[in-house]
Specification:
Helix content: 25-40%
Shape: elongated
CATH architecture of the largest domain: Alpha-Beta Complex
Strand content: 15-25%
CATH superfamily of the largest domain: Spore Coat Polysaccharide Biosynthesis Protein SpsA, Chain A
CATH topology of the largest domain: Spore Coat Polysaccharide Biosynthesis Protein SpsA, Chain A
Largest sheet: 8 strands, mixed
Radius of gyration: 25 Å
Strand order of the largest sheet: 10-9-8-11-14-13-15-12
Structural class: alpha/beta
Number of helices: 18
Distance between the termini: 49 Å
Low-confidence stretches: 225-230
Mean pLDDT: 84
Number of domains: 2
Oligomer: single chain
Length: 461
């Protein structure tokens, strides 16, 4: 995978809710389209990595940060930006740059799962005899574009500028441009991309016979994605973490006992322990990015595909059946009109720490039973629609969940679930009086307009 004369460049963008596979989302829903985009990215990356004697490279859309991507297997060692301009400008520059460096360069996207390493290898081998290779798809586009090193000597980086990438038939436009430039062109074996519902049905038929061709997609399609939202409601649980491997394991153990369907997203702020890798090994989505709980939770929500979101601290464990209670709150029952809410808390002492102020631990739970604006360890939840309507989680250094709950409560009263979540008392045990004082003064100071940065320094000081 490190031979200097063959390079596979995958063009990708983050599989984020509402931005991923928007045409397919019209048929299967935004959540299902997001999950499919994530599976397609993983399967296409694995197929590219299986091509012998070729270096693989991940190129991200300009609006995406490298840390915003779920972990891939094998991991992308150094994701790079695609650069500016429309698709043609970006593809032209990247293909030209690779070929100019002496590599037979093949560009591909993530819309064509099921591609075999043999098919990718055939496209690369075609560049031994031809300047340009295109892999045709039925709608008149192409699943790959390859450029030979000898062709770069006759081209400029802008050789694909000025084409119309907003309509079907882009392959014919590239073929015409190649003829104008005097490039010899051949076609790779045909394949199909997945942009619409009928394409998904074709992929499902193919994977029913060849599940190993795209195992992530095969597993997802075996769950029978419907054109209507699944029932029961899919919940995305977002956990922000930073060097909390042991507590993260306990938190994930409690989540594993919850009734499904559940999507778990671990948004890591730069841990140097093994917690995020262990979470990925359990099959959870793991995101890596800058530290800061507000930013981490916002990144997790951006990548979530569920119809509802629940924000969970690693200090908090959900009781048995908690997610069914969330579904009941958001879909009817005692909270027929609720679109957001939170749990009350029950704080338990950490046996590894001294507990001379035992009764004070329960004082921390009183707020959860009376506040109109929940925050902190209360496992706040909301529908995806409500979250988007209020502008989502803000990347504040502190009070990010309180800020969100105020905006959600401005739409409808929040539900309060009386079955408590279990919260570790470690902060209270370490500095009981200071912790209680900060719990009392930080929210009013925030409401008075004190800067969240100043409040964060006070909290962590």
């Amino acid at each position: 995978m490190t031979h200097a004369t063959r390079r596979l460049v995958m063009l990708a963008r983050a599989p984020a809710h509402g931005r991923a596979k928007t045409r397919l989302a019209a048929d299967v829903g935004a959540g299902a389209a997001c999950r499919l985009a994530r599976a397609m990215l993983a399967d296409c990356w694995a197929a590219a990595g299986a091509v012998r004697d070729a270096r693989t490279e991940l190129r991200l859309a300009l609006c995406d940060a490298p840390g915003a991507y779920p972990l891939l297997t094998p991991p992308a060692l150094r994701p790079l930006p695609q650069g500016e301009g429309d698709l043609g400008a970006r593809m032209g520059r990247l293909a030209h740059a690779g070929a100019r460096e002496g590599h037979a360069t093949l560009l591909l996207g993530t819309d064509a799962p099921g591609l075999s390493p043999e098919l990718l290898n055939a496209a690369l081998q075609a560049l031994d005899q031809h300047d340009l290779v295109l892999g045709p798809v039925p709608d008149g586009g192409f699943w790959c574009l390859g450029l030979a090193p000898r062709a770069a000597q006759r081209l400029q980086p802008d050789w694909l500028d000025g084409l119309d990438w907003e309509r079907d038939g882009t392959r014919a436009q590239v073929q015409a441009r190649a003829a104008q430039l005097g490039l010899s062109l051949t076609l790779a074996p045909p394949w199909f991309d997945v942009d619409r519902g009928p394409d998904l049905e074709r992929l499902a038929r193919h994977l029913a016979l060849h599940p190993d061709a795209a195992p992530r997609c095969a597993e997802l399609l075996a769950g029978a994605i419907e054109r209507s939202p699944p029932s029961p409601m899919l919940l995305s649980v977002i956990v922000a973490t930073l060097n909390e491997g042991q507590r993260l394991n306990a938190c994930l153990d409690a989540l594993a006992r919850q009734p499904g369907p559940v999507e778990v997203i671990v948004s890591d702020g730069g841990s140097d322990d093994e917690g995020p890798d262990r979470a990925a090994a359990r099959g959870h989505v793991v995101l890596r990015g800058p530290s800061g709980r507000g930013a981490q939770l916002a990144a997790g929500a951006q990548h979530a595909s569920g119809e509802a979101l629940l924000f969970l601290h690693v200090d908090t464990s959900l009781p048995e059946g908690a997610l069914d209670r969330v579904r009941e709150a958001l879909q009817g029952g005692a909270y027929a009109s609720a679109e957001a809410g939170a749990f009350v808390t029950h704080t338990r002492s950490d046996p590894a720490l001294p507990n001379p102020w035992g009764p004070l631990l329960r004082l921390a739970d009183l707020r959860s039973r009376f506040t109109r604006h929940p925050y902190g360890d209360q496992a706040m939840f909301c529908t995806r629609a409500a979250y988007d309507a209020v502008g989502g989680m803000r990347a504040l250094p502190i009070m990010e969940d309180y800020d969100l709950s105020v905006r959600l409560a401005g739409r409808r009263p929040l539900a309060r679930i009386g079955t408590p979540v279990i919260v570790s008392g470690r902060r209270m045990q370490r500095r009981p009086l200071r912790t209680l004082l900060l719990m009392r003064i930080i929210p009013p100071l925030y409401r008075m307009g004190v800067s969240p940065k100043r409040l964060a320094r006070l909290y962590r000081g």
